[in-house]
Amino acid sequence: MNDATEAIRAYLTEELMPLGLNPDAVFVNEVADVVELEVVRTRTLVEEAAYWLEQREEPTYDQGLFGLFQQRGTFDPAHRLGSLRLSDFERLIGRLLAALG
């Protein structure tokens, strides 16, 4: 792990502590389309935040194609996270970007 990843992990861990969430155990899963729901990409919150920080861009997720889950590689509603919304995660990344200047 590099220092940037550890800093992202520390930030997310602190921000998500009130929700009791581990940023390495919550996944941003993406499907190719809303009909077949075949997962085409899965990243932990830490990996996802690192990706967007590298892009220097705040994400805007399509709620039909992306979701937050407690399991990697699924779009099953039974594993969908209820305590954190994609828009909340977008704002967390936005605050990280702002802090970096």
What does the model show?
The chain is an alpha+beta fold. Helix content is 40%, strand content 15%. It is built from three helices and three strands; from the N terminus they run αββαβα. It has a three-stranded antiparallel beta sheet with strand order 2-1-3. β1 and β2 form a beta hairpin. α2 packs across α3. The longest helix has 15 residues. The two termini are 23 Å apart. The mean pLDDT is 95.
What are the salient characteristics of this protein?
single chain, 101 residues, alpha+beta, three-stranded antiparallel sheet, 3 strands
Number of helices: 3
Rg (CA only): 13 Å
Strand order of the largest sheet: 2-1-3
The H-and-E topology, N to C, reads as: HEEHEH
Q: Strand share of the residues?
A: 5-15%
Spans of at least 5 consecutive residues with low confidence: none
Q: What does the largest sheet look like?
A: 3 strands, antiparallel
